[in-house]
Design brief:
Elements: H1 3-9, H2 12-20, H3 32-42, E1 46-49, E2 61-66, E3 72-78, E4 99-100, E5 103-105, H4 113-125, E6 133-139, H5 150-159, E7 166-169, E8 181-183, E9 185-186, E10 188-197, E11 201-202, H6 213-224, E12 239-246, E13 254-255, E14 258-267, H7 273-288, E15 294-303, E16 306-307, H8 312-325, E17 330-332, H9 340-343, E18 349-351, E19 365-367, H10 368-388
Parallel strand pairs: 3-6, 3-7, 7-18, 8-17
Antiparallel strand pairs: 1-2, 2-6, 4-5, 5-19, 9-16, 10-14, 10-15, 11-13, 12-14
Helix pairs in contact: 1-4, 2-3, 2-4, 4-10, 6-7, 8-10
Length: 391
């Protein structure tokens, strides 16, 4: 790595701005991966584009590696972002990457283009050669279906016999300031769509119809009325949240033919997806069968719960954070899912990034002080990892 390139990328702000200025709303890339690919190439990384596997929209994925020996420390993240919403509601245009009063504004500033830039800057600042390899696994399909993104790259790596030993995902995990919280696990996610089938008819002749609405109400009452668990030492309690109830009946004098509801369960290690599915089937049948109604249930398993056990890897992370912030980070498993759910099948993984208070919001932003703090944390983490962690 030449001194000139190292100095050029040692400041994370220019790269963060360049990435934010790409309108990479899933599944569109708008040149974002190419921006990162050029930067990493100048720093000496061998870069490979990993193509989509399905017939859907083309997804841009990048795997870049510096070094050929073990251990391989990987930074994982995504360059795709959610839509900005009403651009007129923003303080600045959402893809202008404007800086004002020490704050960088733009879609992706918090989630998570700035973290990618911070990691690149941390590598550029390295004072000595690493005793192993550094890699970046970057996808453009995290905010979308996540079918052709990280999971696809991991399959590709496995097929070519390439191993990742440990991984940091740069999601915005902090509550107030970079490094205050590290995610070492996540709850699982199970989505169910329940359809209660009745018989359409005139409201004046209910005996000639079967109204599905009382059935879906009864079923949901049984489901939400149960406390799934109280959580455990590592995870908060599992929870079921109804997200929509749809009947689609525009007529006030017609009993509808069917009613649908969708709900999601975020579950900890006290539950299993299979057990929850069986319970849902039993409860919905018990609620609707006495009413003479039929039910259909469809499940989508979004993720299984996982936990990276505290040990040498998490100790190195906590020590690096403390050296920069003078505070010990909190280990947490709260929040939604992330691409760590795929990575945990291959190696120990933790999530460490910027504050998430503005992600997905109007005026998404990050303070330049926090961006610098995260860069220093990543710099310390890289040095400590290669000094202490063995394969």
């Amino acid at each position: 790595m030449k001194t000139q390139e190292r100095a050029r990328f040692a400041d994370p702000l220019p790269l963060a701005q360049e990435l934010i200025r790409c309108r990479s709303v899933t599944p569109h890339d708008d040149g974002c991966i190419a921006v990162l690919e050029r930067a990493l190439g100048e720093l000496g990384f061998a870069c490979t584009r990993v193509p989509s596997a399905t017939g859907g929209p083309r997804i841009e994925n990048l795997y870049a590696r510096l070094g050929k020996t073990a251990p391989n420390f990987c930074f994982a993240g995504h360059t795709d972002v959610v839509p900005p919403g009403d651009a007129a509601a923003w303080r600045f245009q959402p893809f202008d990457a404007r800086v004002e009063d020490g704050t960088l504004f733009g879609r992706g500033a918090a989630d998570m283009k700035s973290a990618i830039a911070a990691f690149v800057a941390a590598v550029a600042r390295a004072k000595t050669a690493f005793g192993g390899s550094i890699s970046l696994l970057i996808t453009g399909d995290e905010e979308g279906p996540a079918i052709d993104g990280t999971a696809r790259v991991l399959e590709w790596l496995k097929a070519r016999g390439e191993r990742i030993d440990h991984c940091i995902v740069g999601e915005p995990t902090a509550e107030a300031s970079a490094g205050d919280t590290v995610k070492i696990g996540r709850r699982g996610s199970l989505t169910c769509t329940l359809t209660v089938i009745g018989m359409q008819g005139h409201v004046g002749y209910p005996e000639r119809a079967k109204n599905p609405v009382p059935g879906i109400v009864a079923a949901l009452q049984r489901l939400i009325g149960r406390k799934l668990d109280a959580g455990n030492a590592q995870f908060q309690a599992s929870n079921l949240e109804v997200t929509t109830i749809d009947i689609g009946n525009p007529a006030a004098n017609v009993i509808p033919a069917q009613a649908k509801a969708t709900f999601n369960i975020r579950f900890n290690t006290e539950q299993t997806a299979e057990g929850l599915e069986d319970w849902i089937k039993v409860e919905t049948q018990a609620a609707t069968r006495p009413l003479g109604l039929k039910t259909e249930v469809a499940f989508t398993r979004g993720a299984q719960p996982f936990l990276t056990e505290e040990g040498e890897f998490t100790q190195v992370i906590a020590d690096a954070v403390q050296r920069v912030t003078n505070q010990r980070p909190k280990f947490s498993t709260t929040g939604g899912t992330s691409d760590a759910r795929f990575i945990r099948e291959h190696c120990p993984v933790a999530e460490l990034g910027l504050a998430g208070s503005t992600m997905h919001k109007v005026d998404e932003c990050v303070s330049l002080a926090d961006l610098e703090k995260l860069t220093r944390i990543y710099e310390e983490l890289l040095a400590a990892y290669f000094a202490k962690v063995k394969r």
